[in-house]
């Protein structure tokens, strides 16, 4: 199971950080707030000094705000310190200085969002809430090859459910720390260490060569325009097809010979492409009709398809290699993508 593999990795490689090996929710809370926008090495030093000065939530509550801000000096994002202080006062007065122990109550506290509430609930109280930070988004989106953006409401909801499912029955306290650490050290944003990764065999992004494309953010998703020029070469009911190969859409389906371009090109230019020359050398061919620019929309891709019909004789058809000649009576034996299927249906009206 993925959760067990990540936990095994964690037990072997985790860093010895001062906020680990404690189940004190106050210390965990301080560390989580400090770690927002701050590197671990910097946060460690501040954490030790802060806890030295304010060892309990009540010590923090009773401190002067200026003292708190002074200790925070240099860390930046000072609203974090002010929120910590205000929240410590609430815990001191409303909860008698005892940190709340339910996810719902923790989430109500000022400056604590869903991630921090899940982290405190699980690290301190072993409650089954999957913590979802940037590291976890990255690991999950790569392992499961998820092309949903992580920064939309829909994406967040989806990943939250996936994170909970992935945690399964693992101990929340260890599992959450493990997957966060795994993202921070192994499955890093720019240079993930896939070579030594213990879950490489189960990582779909690794298998598909998509590691550097995930996770996705909504602003990054651009619709790509591709221009497909299909060559429908026929002789009565016979025509030629090829099988799509490689890691692209419609892998292993069949199509008419294709010339692809990243921009629209005129027929005159098409005749000058190397693929056209390679296919037909200097044969004299007559273009019978052109069915132009039908847009086929896929997720993140607009396919502008043009089908060029060339009527020829069977000898010439046989010479066009390495394609396969089929008869219209055989089309049931071949899977075709939608644009080709539509064209075949329109061309051979009496297909069974
Ligand atoms: S194989 Fe690479 S991308 Fe996949 S989980 Fe491991 S480190 Fe991350």
Q: What this model shows, in words?
A:
- Belongs to the Nth/MutY family.
- The chain is α+β, with helices and mostly antiparallel strands and 352 residues long.
- It folds into 2 domains: 2-213, Endonuclease III, domain 1, CATH 1.10.340.30; 224-347, Nucleoside Triphosphate Pyrophosphohydrolase (Alpha-Beta Complex).
- It has helices at 2-13, 25-35, 40-53, 57-61, 65-72, 79-94, 103-108, 114-125, 134-143, 153-167, 172-185, 204-208, 267-270, 274-280, 314-319, 338-347, and strands at 224-235, 238-243, 254-255, 258-261, 287-298, 301-311, 324-327.
- Strands 1, 2, 3, 4, 5, 6 and 7 form a 7-stranded mixed sheet that branches.
- Strand 1 and strand 2 (238-243) form a beta hairpin.
- The protein is elongated and about 95 Å long.
- The model has no long low-confidence stretch (mean pLDDT 91).
- Iron/sulfur cluster (SF4) binds at residues 139, 142-143, 186-187, 192-194, 197, 199-200, 203, 205-206, 211.
């Amino acid at each position: 199971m993925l959760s067990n593999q990540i936990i095994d990795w964690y037990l072997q490689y985790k860093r010895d950080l001062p906020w680990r090996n404690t189940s004190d929710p106050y210390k965990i809370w301080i560390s989580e707030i400090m770690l927002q926008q701050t590197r671990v090495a910097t946060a460690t030093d501040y954490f030790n000094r802060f806890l030295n000065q304010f060892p309990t939530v009540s010590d923090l509550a009773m401190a002067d705000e200026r003292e708190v801000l002074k200790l925070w000096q240099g860390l930046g994002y000072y609203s974090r310190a002010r929120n910590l202080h205000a929240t410590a006062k609430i815990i001191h007065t409303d909860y008698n200085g005892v940190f709340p122990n339910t996810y719902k109550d923790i989430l109500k506290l000022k400056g604590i969002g869903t991630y921090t509430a899940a982290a405190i609930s699980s690290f301190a109280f072993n409650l089954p809430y999957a913590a979802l930070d940037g590291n976890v988004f990255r690991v999950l989106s790569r392992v499961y090859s998820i092309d949903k953006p992580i920064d939309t409401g829909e994406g967040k909801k989806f990943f939250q459910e996936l994170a909970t499912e992935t945690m399964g029955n693992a101990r929340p306290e260890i599992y959450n720390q493990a997957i966060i650490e795994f993202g921070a050290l192994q499955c890093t944003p720019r240079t993930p260490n896939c070579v030594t990764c213990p879950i490489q065999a189960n990582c779909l992004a690794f298998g598909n060569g998509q590691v550097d494309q995930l996770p996705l953010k909504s602003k990054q998703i651009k619709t790509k325009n591709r221009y497909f020029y299909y060559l429908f070469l026929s002789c009565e009911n016979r025509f030629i097809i090829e099988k799509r190969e490689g890691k692209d859409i419609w892998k292993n389906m069949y199509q008419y010979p294709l010339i692809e371009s990243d921009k629209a090109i005129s027929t005159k230019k098409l005749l000058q492409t190397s693929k056209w020359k390679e296919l037909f050398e200097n044969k004299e061919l007559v273009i019978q009709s052109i069915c132009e620019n039908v847009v086929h929309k896929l997720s993140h891709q607009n396919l502008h398809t043009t089908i060029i019909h060339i009527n020829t004789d069977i000898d010439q058809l046989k010479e066009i290699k390495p394609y396969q000649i089929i008869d219209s009576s055989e089309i049931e034996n071949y899977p075709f993508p939608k644009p080709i299927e539509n064209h075949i249906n329109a061309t051979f009206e009496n297909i069974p």
